[in-house]
Amino acid sequence: ATPIGLLVGTGRGAQLGILIRGPQALEDTRKLDTIVLDKTGTVTTGVMTHLGTAAVDGVDPAQALALAGAVEHHSEHPIAQAIAKAAAAQGELAQVTGFDSDPGGGVLGFIEGRKVVVGRASWLAAQGTELDQQAMDMLAAAEAEGATAILVSVDGAFQAVISVADKIKDSSAAAISELQQRGLRVVLLTGDNKSVASKVAAQVGIKPEDVFAGVFPADKAKAITSLQEAGRVVAMVGDGVNDAPALAQADLGIAMGSGTDVAIEAADITLMGNDLHQVTQAIDLSAKTLSTIK
Ligand code: ADP
Ligand code: MG
Q1: For position 138, which CATH number holds?
Q2: Which residues are annotated as catalytic?
């Protein structure tokens, strides 16, 4: 039988915009010692903007952006939305056939018979694009600027690097500090590059050794497992399709209300306010509810 107090706790959570799947989740919240945060859409707004496009000699950057944007138009990823929007601002997007995507990797599609691949280096390589020294140098230059750098290839030939970036939510730094004041270890886990991840971590007070960057979706769940094997009791907070396995693996999965359905379904708790302060509220609510029961 469920103690009535736990049910009251879940009701109080709902009033705060914290949707708790079952009374057990509230009980598990009390045992946490580690909070793992996804970056994009969790610590940051997840609304990306296009900063610029750099193309190889002989390729028009606007044309590379147009092709990439037409393909990205078929993806829900925040990066995709920024690229599609910037491309649409230049002119009508081309028709795409055979769209495919790898969450945490990128997208591909065919435009007038040409195969356009957009995403991280490993995704382009997996699709048969040869990335030469020039490509790697252009990627490194964009990342050194603190941007998330997205590569574009056409029929296997590298063409351009598109830089995008988003902003840290106004509330993130204070919320992370609240969690740390409660003795919790806060970890940043992201598929994005090390340079962006370190910059964000520094701005919100996460220690450099607690930044796990460049992590593939399947490895996000493994990162949770390794923390658990080291004896940590872990909450994962995320919003993306790529976060779902990690949300399910964590002792407690917490999804942003603005997140994808897949993330929300995998989570034990959903934060309707999309705010990390609500993680502290859930922890405090759990402590209070359980002390009332005893
Ligand atoms: P995060 O952990 O920050 O939410 P993701 O796992 O969603 O990041 O993505 C990791 C990386 O995969 C991105 O930084 C990007 O390089 C690449 N990627 C994923 N989806 C796309 C896309 N639709 N277009 C371009 N690149 C993508
Ligand atoms: Mg995310």
Answers
A1: 3.40.1110.10
A2: 38
